[in-house]
Amino acid sequence: MIRHYAVRLVVLLLFASLPGVVSAGMIRDTELESGLQKLMAPLVKAAGYPPGAIAVRIIIDPNYNAFVAGKQIIYVHSGLLLEAQSTEEIIGVLAHEIGHLKAGHVPRRDAAIADANSANALAALAAIAIAAGGGGGDAAAGVLIGGQDQATRKLLQTIRYDEAVADELGLSLLDKTGISASGLRDMMQRMAAQRALPESRQSRYYQTHPGAVERLGVYQDHVNRKDREATPLADDILTLAARLKTKLRAYVEPPQSVLTQFTDETVPGHLYARSIARYRRGELEAALAVIDRLIDMVPDDPFFHEFRGDILLSMAQPNASALAYETAISLRPDSPQILLNYGRSLIAGGRADDFTKAISALEKARNGEAKWAFAHRQLAIAYGRAGRLADADMTLAEEALLTGDTQQAIKMARRTLSYENLRDELQNRANDILFRYGAAAK
User: Fold this and answer.
1) How many domains does the chain have?
2) Alpha helical stretches, state H, 103-149
3) How far apart are CA 273 and CA 75, in angstroms?
4) Out of 49, 67, 155, 223, which residue is the most buried by the measure of CB atoms under 10 Å away?
5) What are phi and psi of 10, to 5 degrees?
6) Does 177 map to a domain?
7) How far is CA 55 from the centre of its chain?
8) Element spanning 27, H or E
9) How many C-alpha atoms does 408 have within 13 Å on its Cβ side?
């Protein structure tokens, strides 16, 4: 199921006045995230990472952009996935972002930004925007407060150097995996054409990835030299990419537009999109009828059963929903987001015998997504419903840490320690929090 979250990310965005905290809508969906991971799996292996080591998150934003932030996470805008004109283009952008991760650019950029004070950082951003627009080094340097501030110069140099390095590494990964760089070339042709547009009409990818004209030359030269060695993408990869785009389109575009676009009810992808559109319009009975037809056509797809569970949970039928999630889990074990919704449905069912199953599912979800605060919250609810109050309070303390609420974490850790006959494991976890923040147990 697609879940929407407010996400706060520290990234360098040239459309903002200063680098800083950016709020955006992030969607969490097992099918979309795992699908993108499958698309880039050969690149991840070629870069020397273990399978699944690099996560992908999708930001709901119609602008074409992608970036890296944090530890081994690539953030991709929905607009990029929907506007990309080929699967090679999507894979090429992912290769470029893996290049940033491989080169360790996130901490380097953070350090460069920290070196510049607020006023000079603003000037640096303006300079980078000029450089990205093709204004050249002289024009960019003129904005840098007379060229006197070394920190802002360093920031500009860091961004441009990082893009060149990421290009080199990304192209190398494409070569190693036999994937054409033509998608990157085609994308950069469109970006370079934005040079003549007013800033309000330029894509965020263009604004945040400087040097489009120069980089187009690099990509074109690479395609000229290497494209004959590339092999066409396999049919299953092309089919997967098309399915991901269809599902994403069904969730982010107006439902009526989706129903108008996807009209062939003999095609599974069209039925999937239509069921999602009905669901978004609140037509739950109609959505259920469509997904049931789809499951009759394709009975072994875990994501269809997962979505059936989503619909039933929205219809206040938690017990039926739990059965749908059970089927999805049997087809795709160890999927934290499906396990989480399974646990939620068991809690909503209110049957005491199901609380133990809910706890088991939610513990697996929490362990699989250890930094997902929402999973901790749902697990705490399950513990509470089962009468395991110390476990509930300890889990709420750890949720508070993930959301940055230190005082709440200390409060819940102290409350955990107030229970009699507390297990050593809970006592140690609670004391760890208090010790970390220099708080007394009281």
Assistant:
1) 1
2) 105-115, 118-132, 136-143
3) 24
4) 155
5) -95, 110
6) yes
7) 7
8) strand 20-28
9) 12
- CA torsion angle for 278, 284, 290, 293 (degrees, to 10)? 170
Distance CA 40, CA 34 (A): 10
Which tokens in the block code for residue 132? 């990205």
Write out the two tokens for 222: 């690479």
The domain in which residue 123 lies consists of 3-235
Quick: pLDDT tens for 89-123.
Answer: 999 999 999 999 998 877 666 665 555 544 454 44
* Domain assignment of residue 199, yes or no: yes
Q: Is residue 417 part of a domain?
A: no
- CA quadruple 384, 390, 393, 396: dihedral positive or negative? negative
Nearest-10 crossing angle of helices 87-102, 182-193: 90
Determine contact, residues 378/339, Cβ cutoff 8 Å.
Answer: no
Residue 137, pLDDT > 50, answer no
8 Å CB contact between 370 and 390: no
CA distance 186 to 139: 27
The token duo for 339 is 């396990």
Residue 192's alpha-carbon distances to 141, 204, 308, in angstroms, are: 21, 13, 44
The answer to whether the Cα torsion of 414, 415, 419, 425 is positive or negative is negative
- Predicted pLDDT of residue 155: 65
Q: Residue 258: which pLDDT band, with cuts at 50, 70 and 90?
A: very high
The per-residue pLDDT for range 57-101, each reduced to its tens digit, is 999 999 898 988 877 899 999 999 999 999 999 999 999 999 999
Write phi, then psi, for 316 (nearest 5 degrees).
60, 40
Q: Which residues contact 425 (CB under 8 A, 6 or more apart)?
A: none
Whether 153 is covered by a domain: the verdict is yes
